[in-house]
Write a structure and sequence with these properties.
This protein is α/β, with parallel strands linked by helices. Helices cover 48% and strands 14% of the residues. α1 packs parallel to α3. The longest helix is centred in the middle third of the chain and has 24 residues. GO terms for molecular function: isomerase activity.
Length: 283
């Protein structure tokens, strides 16, 4: 990943694990214009390489992220403040859809995305981690739907994804009040998988989980993500039919045979990477 340079992230790739670190601690890793442009670019570059099998997103400094940099919405080049109300509204709608699409890239990428959260995970940052596959936190981590307190409705994913992760009544309380909720409470409700005393301990544990994922057949793992996302949004009947269709097209015995052979020889199986993602009509 040395060929990829971002203002908001530091990216390393080793042992089939892409580690993406938010790298603006002096600004509390707020989600500025660079962030919104670079996140989907970063995720797609990792996926396109074909080398990574899992993505870990962590952060630097005291807080995971202070959320949306308000400069994104106060910049007249992004959101015009004068002019015809209908045209202003249409422009704002497209802006919000673009921001939503940035975070949806974490769901759409074929690789599992694990997030490691320390300190504050505020506003837009909560939107982001809700789009990941798994969340892990330090004991001092806290979360808040900050937008309510600021006088607006959260608009880039929390209100749509959080009810799929924790009970409706809890989501509504958190959304209506905008109060902070701790890592311990988040774990109780199932938002985070585990809580660790320190960031170092958390990263060690998350990297261990990432290594377990990366050791499996990447075709099997991407199939799991595809099916889980589909099943979340469709009926059981429709999801079972889609599973059968997926299996009829994607299942081959090659990786399974490698697993059996590895057990016999007591060695770790070696799986081929997925093909790199390429633009069909690229030069």
């Amino acid at each position: 990943m040395s060929d990829f340079s971002f203002n908001s992230f530091k990216v390393t790739l080793a042992d089939h694990i892409a580690h993406v670190q938010l790298s603006r601690p002096e600004a509390l890793n707020s989600m500025n214009t660079d962030f919104w442009l670079e996140l989907p670019q970063c995720v797609r570059a990792i996926e396109a390489s074909g080398e990574a099998r899992v993505i870990v997103i962590s952060s630097t400094g005291k807080h995971f992220s202070a959320g949306m940099d308000l400069g994104v919405f106060t910049n007249p080049k992004t959101v015009p403040m004068t002019g015809d109300p209908g045209r202003m509204g249409e422009n704002l709608r497209r802006t919000v859809l673009q921001l939503q699409a940035c975070l949806s890239s974490l769901e759409e990428v074929r690789l599992p995305v694990l997030t490691a959260i320390q300190g504050g995970c505020i506003g837009g940052a909560l939107d982001m981690v809700c789009a990941a596959d798994c969340r892990y936190a330090t004991a001092d981590a806290y979360f808040t739907i900050k937008e309510t307190e600021l006088g607006m409705t959260a608009d880039v994913g929390t209100l749509q994804r959080l009810p799929k992760l924790i009970p409706q009544g809890v989501v509504r309380e958190l959304a209506y009040t905008g109060r902070k909720f701790s890592a311990a409470e988040a774990k109780t409700h199932g938002l985070v998988n585990e809580v660790y005393e320190t960031q170092e301990a958390m990263l060690d544990a998350v990297m261990t989980i990432a290594k377990q994922i990366a050791a499996h057949s990447p075709l099997a793992v991407t199939g799991c993500k595809e099916m889980l996302n589909y099943s979340r949004d469709h009926s059981v009947e429709d999801s079972l039919k889609y599973m059968a269709t997926w299996q009829s097209g994607m299942f081959r015995p090659n990786d399974m045979m490698k697993t059996f052979q590895a057990k016999v020889t007591k060695q770790a199986p070696q799986f081929d990477n997925l093909f790199p993602v390429k633009q069909v009509f690229s030069e």
